[in-house]
Amino acid sequence: MNLSLRKELIARLSKALTKLGLPENSAEISPTAASHFGDYQSNTAMVLAKSLREDPKTVAAQILSQIDVSDLSLRPRIAGAGFLNFRILNSHLVQHLVQLSYDPRLGVPCTSSPRRIVIDFSSPNVAKPMHVGHIRTTVLGDALARIAQFLGHKVITDNHVGDWGTQFGKVIYGWKHLLDSDRLACKPIAELVRLYREVSRLEEENPNVSDKIREELVLLQQGDPENLSIWGKIVEFSWKEFEDVYRVLGIRFDHQLGESFYNHALSPLVERLLAAGIARLSQGAVCVFFPETPKLTDKPCMVRKSDGGFLYATTDLATLEYRIKAWNPDAIWYVAGAPQSLHFQQVFEIARRLGIRAELTHVAFGSILGKDRKMMKTRAGDNVPLANLLQEAITRATQVIGQKNPSLSIEEKAEVACTIGIGAVKYAELSQNRLTDYVFSWEKMLSFQGNTAPYLQNAYVRVRSIFRKLQGTLPETPAFCLHVPEERILALRLLQFGETVPRVLEDFRPNILANYLFELANAFHSFYEACPVLNVEEKLRQSRLVLCRLSKQILGKGLSLLGINSPKKM
Ligand code: ARG
After folding, report:
1. Which of 15, 216, 407, 477 has the most crowded Cβ, counting Cβ within 10 A?
2. How far apart are CA 570 and CA 550, in angstroms?
3. Residue 120 beta carbon below 6 angstroms from any ligand 1 atom
4. What are the counts of helices (DSSP H) followed by strands (DSSP E) for the chain?
5. Rounded to whole angstroms, how far apart are CA atoms 50 and 52?
6. How many domains would you assign to the chain?
7. Mean pLDDT of the chain
8. Is 125 in the pocket of ligand 1 (CB under 6 A)?
C-alpha cells in the first residue's frame, strides 16, 4: 500500500527538517479548510518558531529552501503568519486515483500494529429505561468498534449491563408489596420504575422501610431463592427492552456480561487487595488510598462497605481481571459519560497496582441538552426513554419522506424512514466533538441541508441514481481528466478517505470521519451540479463515472463505519 498524500508530504517535510537540524517529528500536515489556500497546509514553521524564538516566516522560508516536493506539488507557498501551503500536481493526483480505483479497501491502510481491544459500551442499568443519555455511549462505542475492526484490530465488544446494584433492594420490596400485574404485563419497565419511585417515597416518609429494603437486598445477595427469582424476572423484562433498542439501532455485541456475572469474584478480590497491601481497613470499610497519585491524594476508593456490601468500583475491578484473563487484550476502552471520570481514574490506578499492563482508556463524553440548554428531559421532568425517542425519529422521518418523495411504496417508505430517522439520530451524535454538550434538535438533524445524515444519504442516493441510468459497464482502466475545479476537488476528497479513518482512533473522535464525509458530500454535490456525467464524450464520461463510483463506495463505506445505513432511494 502506498502512502497517502498527507503522509507523502509529511515524509518530505521531515526530511527538510532533518537537513535543517530541526526535530523531524514536528512535521505536521493537514488538509486545508478552503481550496484557494491549496490542498494541504503545514503549521510546523509556526510551532517551531515559538520554541526557537524566531520569526515564523523566517523558519518557513528555511524549510522552503530545503524541502523537495517537485514531483508531488507545485512550489509550496508561505501564507498568513507562516503557514506552508501545498497544491498537489494533477498528474500526481491521477496516479493516486488509479491506485484508489483498484483498491478494495478504498485507500484505508490496515494498521501495521494490530491490537486486541475490548470496548465496553452502552451498559444500561436494569429496571430503569434506557434513556437518551445512553445514545451517546451506544452509538460512539459501536462506531469506534467498527472503525477499529476495519483498521485491522481484533475488537471484542462487551455490554457491561448494570444488572446487580442497590436498586434491587427497592424494586424487590416494591414487587412484593405494590406490584400491579396488569401494568407489568403491558408496560413492564414503566411499572418497575413506578415501584422504584413509590418505594423511594415510602422510604422518605418512613425510615423503617429503609431497613426492609436493605434486608431484601441482603437476601438477594445471599442467594435467597424467592428474591433471586424476582430479580431474574426483572432482568428478563429489561433485556427485552434493551434488545428492542439494539435491534432498531442495528447494534450487536460479542459479549453481554452484566455486573451480576462478577458477583462471586468480589469477595475474594477484596481479600486479595487486602493481602497485597493495596487496600486497607478504614472505619470498618475497605478502601484503597492514593497518597502519591496527583488528583487522587484525597480521594480514596471504597471497595467494601462496613456492612459488607460491594461497590461499582469493586465490580469494575473484577470485570477487568476477568477480561484480562479471558481475552488478553492490549487495550480496553470504556465509553462512559464524563461524570464517571474519577471512578475510572481510581479503577485504572488500582489495576496498575494489581499489575495489569493493558492500556486503559475512559472515552468520555458530554451531555445531550434540551432546547433550554439544560439536560434533556420529558415534560414531566423525567429522562427521555430511548425507545420513544427512536420511535419518534422514525415517525418524523416518515413525514419528511412523505413530502419529499410521495411516489415511494408503503414498504419502501417504511424502510427509508427507518434508515433516515435512525441515521439522523446517530449522525447528530457522531458529528459532534464527543466532549462537548450538544442541543438535541429534530429540525436540525432531519434537515436535508447542512451537516446531517439525510444530506449525506441524499448524496449517496444521487450518485446511485446515475448508475441506474447507466447502460453498459464501467471502464476497466480509468483515465482521469481533472480539468474542471469541481472534478479536482472531488478527486482530492476521495483520496483523503484513507488518511482520515485512522485519525479517528488517535483521540477516539468519529466526528473526524463525519466531517470528512460532509466535505465529500459537498464536493460531490458541487461536482454533480457542474459536471454532466452521462452525456459527454467517452473519455470524459469514463473518468467522471469512476469518480462517481468511488464517491458512492466511499460515502457508503464511511456511513457504514459510523453504523449508518445508506438508502437506495429517498
Ligand atoms: N451502567 C453504568 C451506567 O449506566 C455504565 C457502565 C460503564 N462501564 C463500566 N465498566 N463501568 O452509568
Report:
1. 216
2. 20
3. yes
4. 21, 13
5. 5
6. 2
7. 94
8. yes
Q: Which residue has the cell 441524499?
A: 458
Q: Is 476 within a domain? A: no
b/e string for 275-284 if b means 16 or more Cβ within 10 A? Answer: eeeebeeeee
Question: Given CA atoms 19, 25, 31, 37 in this order, what sign does their dihedral have?
Answer: negative
pLDDT score for 477: 64
Give residue 226's domain range: 167-249
Ligand 1 atom 11 nearest Cα = 316
Q: Using a 6 Å cutoff on CB, does residue 336 contact ligand 1?
A: yes
Closest residue by CA, ligand 1 atom 4? 124
Buried b (16+ CB within 10 A) or exposed e, 160-195: bbbbbbebbbbbbbbbeeebeeeebeeebbebbbbb
In terms of Cβ atoms closer than 10 Å to its own Cβ (0-12, 13-18, 19+), residue 145 is buried
In a domain, 195, yes or no: yes
Of residues 187, 101, 8, 325, the one with CA closest to residue 317: 325
Residue 478 scores a pLDDT above 80: no
Strand ranges of the sheet holding 83-86, from the earlier edge strand across to the other edge: 30-31, 40-42, 83-86, 77-79
State which of 222, 249, 276 marks the end of a domain: 249
Q: Using a 6 Å cutoff on CB, does residue 191 contact ligand 1?
A: no
Distance of alpha carbon 72 from alpha carbon 5, whole angstroms:
9
In a domain, 16, yes or no: yes
The residue to which cell 434537515 is assigned: 447
Out of 35, 66, 88, a domain closes at 88
Residue nearest atom 3 in ligand 1 by C-alpha distance = 124
Instruction: Collapse the DSSP code of 255 into the 3-class scheme (helix H, G, I; strand E, B; otherwise coil) and give the result.
Output: strand
pLDDT recorded at residue 63: 97
Q: What is the pLDDT of residues 375-404, one digit of tens each?
A: 888 777 888 889 999 999 999 999 999 999
Q: For residue 312, which atom of ligand 1 is closest to its CA?
A: 11
Sequential DSSP letters for 428-444:
HHHTS-TTS-EE--HHH
DSSP 285: E
Q: Is the CB of 160 under 6 A from ligand 1?
A: yes
Which uninterrupted H or E stretch holds 98? helix 90-102
Measuring from atom 6 of ligand 1, which residue has the nearest CA?
A: 123
